[in-house]
Specification:
With 260 residues, this protein is of the alpha+beta class. The chain has eight helices and nine strands. The protein binds adenosine-5'-triphosphate and magnesium ion.
């Protein structure tokens, strides 16, 4: 703030500069939350690795069956940490402006290979994955690896949050200059107040259950970033106890490439 005076030293005017720091403040809180979440997610598996290892060193190693069971847990927890670090790296690459490797992709083929792969996971829960891909979906421009990751994430959630013998339907069709891929399940659904938040990093509707199933709440945050980087989006419709429908929307051609 600056005060201006005239030749008689009387106040003539004041200049005040006011800066709105709401956004910075929000970002700062988000950053702190993010670090707290990451530390928590890493600390939990580390604590169990440490305690199982100590028990083994304290003598449990002599009992082969127990030792095998404990080593299994240590192995799973190590996998969990690896996945978390992988997800974090993906997100930080996005933050730094990841360069997508654009190429021509046949969405029908890509959905085919993702569903074939995920059918094996669904089979473990006796779930059925059906596909209905409309004919004539044009080739789109996109990063094959990232779009595969995006579709796999969404189908993975459908499997994870649907009970044994559940049904999952993957459909694709065109609408104007968009390709819409929808994944519908008849699983547990999402409570209405949570729907708007599921794309936030580390957001899980039921933290205890999700963690038990190996989730950290980063999957949809990554999926959404990939869709947006392609000029698309992801939308969600869900009814608690009935099921969920997630739609991936991708432009057939990105605007800047159309201009080339
Ligand atoms: N198909 C679905 N049915 C019901 N709930 C879902 C579905 N997909 C996502 N959710 C809810 O949204 C939350 C966020 O999903 P997200 O994929 O980001 O995390 P996650 O599956 O818990 O963990 P991660 O994907 O990182 O392993 C989930 O914890 C779950 O509560
Ligand atoms: Mg997930």
């Amino acid at each position: 703030m600056a005060i201006f005076t005239d030749e008689n030293n009387k106040t003539d005017g004041i200049i005040a500069v006011i800066q709105d720091i709401t956004e910075e403040y929000k970002l700062d809180i988000m950053r702190k939350d993010f670090v707290a979440n990451v530390s928590h997610e890493l600390r939990t598996p580390l604590t169990s690795v440490k305690s199982y290892t100590e028990t083994l060193l304290d003598g449990a190693l002599q009992d082969r069956a127990t030792a095998e069971q404990f080593l299994g847990v240590i192995n799973d927890e190590a996998d969990r940490m690896t996945n978390l670090v992988k997800d974090l790296l993906t997100l930080s690459q996005h933050d730094g402006g990841i360069i997508l490797n654009f190429e021509d992709i046949s969405i029908s083929d890509l959905i085919g290979s993702c569903t074939d792969r995920m059918r094996r996971v669904a089979k473990l829960k006796n779930q059925e994955i059906k596909t209905k891909i409309n004919k004539g979906i044009p080739i789109i421009q996109g990063d094959r690896y990232r779009i595969d990751q995006l579709i796999t994430n969404i189908i993975g959630n459908a499997i994870k949050y649907t009970a044994e013998k559940g049904k999952i339907m993957v459909q694709a069709h065109c609408e104007k200059n968009l390709v819409i891929i929808s994944v519908e399940d008849n699983g547990i659904g999402i409570p209405a107040p949570d729907i708007a938040r599921i794309f936030e990093r580390f957001y899980r509707v039921d933290k205890a259950r999700s963690r038990q199933m190996g989730g950290t709440g980063l999957g949809l945050a990554i999926a959404k970033e990939i869709a947006i980087l392609h000029g698309g989006d992801i939308t969600v419709k869900s009814k608690l106890g009935k099921g969920t429908n997630i739609s991936i929307i991708l432009p057939i051609r990105k605007a800047h490439q159309q201009a080339l």
